[in-house]
Amino acid sequence: MHEVHICDTTLRDGRQMPGVYFTLYECVEIASKLDEIGIDQIEVFCPGYVLKDYFLIRELNKIGLDDKLLVWHRGLKVDLEKSINTKLKFGAVALSIATEKHHREQKLQMSKEQIIENMCEAVSFAKDHGLYVSVNAEKSVGTEPQYLIDFANAVTEAGANRIRYCDTLGELIPHETYDIISKLAKKIKVDIEFHGHDDMGMGVGNTLEAFRAGAKWLDTSVCRLGERGGFTSLEQLLYNLYKHYNVQKYDVSKIAELAAFVQNVSGMDPPPNTPITGLNIYRHESGIHAHGVLRDVNLYEKVRAAEVGIKEGSMRDKIVIGETTGRESIVYILKEFGIEIDKTNPIIGKILNKIQEQYLFGRKTSVTHEELVELYQIFSTKNKIKPVTTIAEF
Description:
Layout lengths: L4 E4 L15 H14 L3 E5 L5 H12 L6 E6 L2 H8 L7 E7 L2 H8 L3 H17 L3 E7 L6 H14 L3 E6 L6 H14 L3 E6 L6 H11 L3 E4 L13 H12 L9 H12 L20 H9 L9 H4 L6 H4 L8 H10 L9 H15 L8 H12 L14
Parallel strand pairs: 1-2, 1-8, 2-3, 3-4, 4-5, 5-6, 6-7, 7-8
Helix pairs in contact: 1-2, 1-10, 5-6, 7-8, 11-14, 15-16
């Protein structure tokens, strides 16, 4: 496969997520952690319009990240002038304009020709100031294919370094993405960047297919932060590139630490079954699964905690007791507390029945290991607690 580059947009698109607000120094810390992983570009807002980004870029200049900064602007010369006049240092700019018919007519009220003219003027101005340029075709999906090619070729002639194909509403499915990007790559002379939202849950799949089809730049956001349904997950994309395409340039061992920091400062608490970094990736309740993990953890853990920077828990930490727990788990946890018992012992059956009885009556939490020991003590001392076995006994 060809080389891949990651542009992370947590500090731009991620910040557009309603309810997510980072302090200035939280933004600096996120940028620093992205840099530690090896992310190629970090996208921020135009400092001429967003006050925080003026100070953010200034702080990132101090720690030497100016060459990694991609500063987002509308595709207008006036936006660039405002940023350049700040005298801040940044290596690249994103220039964005909508290309899809309804956006052209209803939002911009501009013709195809006017859009190309405005963007080419902005690109030329950026190149005159020594900037790397990513041209963003907002709502690329739905743009007439030939017009998108004409737009891309025109901005390339003006000096653009790459074209950002935007699945603005996250509406593609992977095979469509592959088809579109592979065809576009044959028609234009500039690198393709894929920008995929996750409204329909296809962000990572679409981005991987864009890469396979020839896109050299892929956009991500930590913890899927982004507008509406979120954005392509940095953690999920990096791990899949590492596992399936042997991409070694990014330090995946740091992604859990970054995700934990962003979860904390964003106030967004992801569910425990979140791919890659979720707690339940490394915990097991089902009797069949726990039985396998107790023999060989690789049987049910393809994603390994240590690879992504999560401290590998003990086997005891991995085993969760609940409604679907089996005998092997009960025996194992009791043994951890110094209690030796065979799984065929009738006491094990009584414990399982009592556990399932609790869920019949509405228990909503897992059974702690200490509770399990208490149940063993109750049944082993012959205290009779009769489980409900039939409807008639209610």
